[in-house]
Task: structure prediction
Amino acid sequence: MDTCITVWHWPHQERWYDEGIRNSLTLVKEAGFTHINWNPDSGSSYWLADAEIEFTSRIVADAGLKVHSVHASNGRNPITEIGYKNPGPFAMETRKDFLSPHEWQRRSGVELLRNRVDLAAAFQSPNIVLHIDINDNVFGSEAAERAFFDPLFQSLDEIRPYCVEKGVQIAAETLLCANAQNFLNLYDRLFARYGKEFIGVCFDCGHWELIEPGKLSVLERFADRVIATHIHDNFGAVDDHLLPFDGRLDWHTIASAIASTPYQTPLNFETPIDRYGIPESAYYRRAHGVAVRLEEMVAEARERKSSDGECACPRQFFTTS
Result:
């Protein structure tokens, strides 16, 4: 059975970017996972050189793992690029922002996206997950809507041919920066303009629970656009990113809803080890047991829907490596 978990970077040692990540990949594989979501540098505007991309794809392959998704960077990150102890907002990374009204800045953001597409292509990953930081003011007026969507559409128009050429889709993640209706509005606008071969949804179930508790309207309305998942649990107050069944989310309902989409498993567990006070190897073993349980729930839900005469898994639009 295929299973997937996010690989993070934990700078506990000097060479976290090769020895540290290589060790994590080994432990992930030993725990039984077959796939990973690549997350290092996702919250950073760090530019990956060609040699880094080649090296990184090689260590993942050497570990015997496949990449199900790559977390891209939108260039708007709450991480300091200046090494002060307590930097102010001016020190945060914003210079490669594909939503910027400043043309040089927007184009820099597109180049950053292209860099992550290159990484995904080297991994043979089918998609990159992208944060599109909409807020509740965007649909408040025509002027606000134009100010948001004009640079967004210009950037996506520019990156689209490169994504299609490389065979890498963009998965726009469900975030916490706007209410549920405005994320539905965002997807309406995106999918009216762009086809399935280019852009879809990354369903982050923990985020969606916080903005629309107990409901799954994004899966109901955009089932055929779900191409990536971020699976984790919480208690309904903050973004805990716990393993499933450790919080309050209704996993039977979520599994059934995912089973009604064309999403091709494995599900991606976005559950960082720093939520748990156990050794890394023990954590991955525990996480794998939970992943198998949830994968079985989705498979069983699809079987039930099929036996009941429902379309358990609509015509497949997407493929994975």
The radius of gyration is 19 Å. The mean pLDDT is 93. Strands lie at 4-7, 35-38, 66-71, 77-80, 92-93, 127-130, 169-173, 199-204, 226-230, 268-269.
